[in-house]
């Protein structure tokens, strides 16, 4: 048995958040750590004088980032990682290549989780019309707790007529976990593709790509990866190796680092996911910041981030339940995570009004439908947790 990981203490001192701010809202956007901030400043300084820039410098940063992200998600092959600007771009690659899926035919279904983020829904509008597919949405159950029932209904919806399943590790609004190992197995059993939006989990929740075996995983960089905005990462499995990219970037072709030969036009792509890189994917400012963020996350490790969030908020949840709130219990891979928790408010409560009351007391969370989304991280302290309980007690009672 491996020895237990050492417990993490708060990392607040590695961030520059004001002392009087209680930021429990990483699911909206992560603050940049001092290490990431410094990487960005250093990159700007380097860009003030591009003298001595080498062709390989256009590629080396992305290579390091691919390796770091692969380490984070247990991906044995970094060449399967592409640099993307957004989840919508990454999902558009899946939609663009769905017609290449073996056995695809009119009448098949795309299975989605209900109340999913728009980028995971809009991506299929055009392709379902073109291919004659239908969309089945597995809605959130009325019953409570919801996780086990929702997972069961999702698995039941995946059948021989399913072409594609789109599911997250953690629901972006409610924090409900989906057992992606079970979903992946069911998808493989019926010959369906599995596309995962890992944005609200990867970086803070352990993610084992080798165990899940998805066909695609797309992850924005500015939430739990703790990097800058407008850059993300995507994994594309063997099903996409000969696929069609969204754009024909010159950097994605073989030998594109040989600048003196760029006019010898190259029809062959670099291998595996490289063809799906967004144009100008060097990102000389953002890439060093994302590299610093991923290095830090690999040091902290998602298991320890989960453990810290669990310990930090352990007394918060019963206190909120005493106010009439409902919170999904922890139930392995189909309950709730610790880094993103949906707090279902009493029926009489107005989520937006409560969010505004919290904001007035410098407590930052998000209102989503009839729930508050609480998203703690290593920069949070017991004072943040206490402030959340104090203000909610005042406005709900």
UniProtKB/TrEMBL annotation:
Q: Does the keyword tRNA processing apply?
A: no
User: Which intervals hold domain Aminotransferase class V?
Assistant: 64-367
GO molecular function annotation: transaminase activity
One of the Pfam families matching this protein, by short name: Aminotran_5
Task: Enumerate the PANTHER family for this protein.
Answer: BLR3095 PROTEIN, CYSTEINE DESULFURASE
Q: Which UniProt keywords apply?
A: Aminotransferase, Pyridoxal phosphate, Transferase
Native species: Spirosoma radiotolerans
Q: Which Gene3D superfamilies match?
A: Aspartate Aminotransferase, domain 1 (3.90.1150.10), Type I PLP-dependent aspartate aminotransferase-like (Major domain) (3.40.640.10)
Name of this chain's protein: Aminotransferase V
